[in-house]
Give the backbone structure.
Amino acid sequence: MSATDAGFDPIVDRPSSGLLSEEPGAKISEVGQSYYDYSLSIRKELPPITWKNLLWNLDWLNVFILSGVPAMTVLGCLVAPLKWQTFVFSVFYYYVTGLGITAGYHRLWSHRSYNASALLEWFLAFAGAGAVEGSAHWWARGHRAHHRYTDTKLDPYNAKEGFLYAHLGWMLLKPRRKIGTADISDLRKNSIVQFQHKYYLVFLPLAAFIFPTVVPWVFWNDPIGGFFYAGFARLMFVHHSTFCINSLAHMFGTQPYDYIKTPRNHLFTAMVTIGEGYHNYHHQYPTDYRVGTAWHHYDPTKWFIWTAKQLGLASHLKQFPENEVNKGKLMMELRKLREFQSQIEWPKTSEDLPVVSWDAYVQQAKERPLILIGGFIHDVSTFFDYHPGGVGYLKKYIGKDATTAFFGGIYEHSNGAHNLCAMRRVGVLHGGVPHAMEEKVVPPGQLLQVAEHDELKKPVV
Ligand SMILES: [Zn+2]
Ligand SMILES: [Zn+2]
């Protein structure tokens, strides 16, 4: 994707010609093992966690943080009265530190979905540290592995392990094997990311607890409320809000762009994750600075990045080409239509029916009511009472060719009538169907069909 504000256009930027192949016989299968199998094979798997070995397999630092934060929140509710100024500031600071993760750790550093000025990067580095989720360097490395190895054993928060594992378990338990590799060479060269990584233990207390204590202290004399509410309670909400991106967003909602892996779109997930809930889109088009693309999608992170651009603090906001997004949308719609189509019973084709000569047709029509329409022979024996045009016309054409009469000679039958008529096929006239391949003769219900790629050349009639 080119880094211009105009964006990458797959049609304008399309290469003019292909390369000449020097080895026309080479096959992909000869290249070797897949990156996944290879990565898996070089990573030793630790024995599974059981109740017996659980204590030795807990990540005690994370257990301490993730249980200590809610405990301190409860303590705060018991000992510190909540001033309204502190409440408003806590909500505001929830968004500040949440955006540090969503706009900073996620969309800027993990996915390079826009360029940020140094001022914005410093702000996001500070705000992100206040969310107590590790350094941006560490977070983005894990997140890139999550995208590269989604739903596999090399995905650090593999949703296939269940809701609790994806939400919390992956942090509380020591991983069974090293997560998959991801290229973070760009982050190694980013001095702000590296500075935050090196001095993370300075950033963390400053952003998570000292700053949210000092502001209420200085402006409305509420250091205790600031410490507990803007510090701990706010942090608990930021934690579980961002954890929902790994759990909720991989379990609940729709899949409008792709069906292969677990990511899903849901408004509720977007509401609790500052806009990250359109996760099916995000996993398909991760370099897009938007996660909710429509104007009505709840995506405050997108609005924040857009506003930063208006203020001159961000540039090169990337958008995935709509032409390519539409291919995903169309594929998913066609899959639904294909499922609907598969539930419908269709007429027999010329391949399923006996081929009958004209003389044999005329002869057999004396025994049973057969009518030829469009090269197919139809048995109308149970249809006399249901023919809206009456019995007379049907009887008149028994043993004859009623094609012209059916298609306007006597009455221009409706599409519905044509579809129904085709269900009464019992034979095909010798030499009749090639002539009948004209568009009018194919039942209208089959003129447009959803077909698998290898079915496209099969006959409809
Ligand atoms: Zn995900
Ligand atoms: Zn992502």
User: Anything to note?
Assistant: The chain has 19 helices and six strands. The first strand starts at residue 115 and ends at 116. The two ends are 45 Å apart (CA to CA). Residues 373 and 403 are 4 Å apart (CA to CA).
